[in-house]
Amino acid sequence: MKETPQFQYISLHLYGIIPSQTLFKFIYSNEVVLNYQRIRELIKILVAISLEQFNEDGTVVPLNLRLKLFLIGVEDNLDKHALSTTGREGFHGTTVSLFQQPTKDNVGEKRSRPQLC
Fold first, then answer.
1. What distance in Å separates the CA atoms of residue 46 and residue 6, rounded to the nearest whole number?
2. Are 99 and 72 contacting, i.e. CB atoms less than 8 angstroms apart?
3. Predicted confidence (pLDDT) per residue in 24-66, tens digit
4. H-helix or E-strand containing 98?
5. For the purposes of burial, counting CB atoms within 10 Å of the CB of 110, is it exposed (0-12), middle (13-18) or buried (19 or more)?
6. Under 8 Å CB-to-CB from 71, ≥6 apart: which residues?
7. d(CA 6, CA 4)
8. Distance (Å, whole) CA 50 – CA 57
9. What is the pTM of this model?
């Protein structure tokens, strides 16, 4: 059975929030989402697509970045309770944001991506 992309998205999104096989068996029986095994298959496909893209680009970037379009990268520190003396209440990390701004004259090129269906 081939499902619609919307059905795949809803199922994968729900799995990302609550990755419970028991829950998915219950809601699959009510035809709300895909079955658990199919979701695991889709995740393997997404991982393979991401790895293929990594091998092409040599780095990890979102799959929806466009080709031949200027890319802006911003790095920022994340600090929660930076003055904590024990480190138990503190958190430190780094985030990287990538931006592309297409113009009327240059919208970039879409990457070719295999479909899940």
1. 15
2. yes
3. 777 777 676 778 888 888 889 888 888 888 888 888 888 788 9
4. strand 91-100
5. exposed
6. 65, 98, 99, 100
7. 5
8. 10
9. 0.56
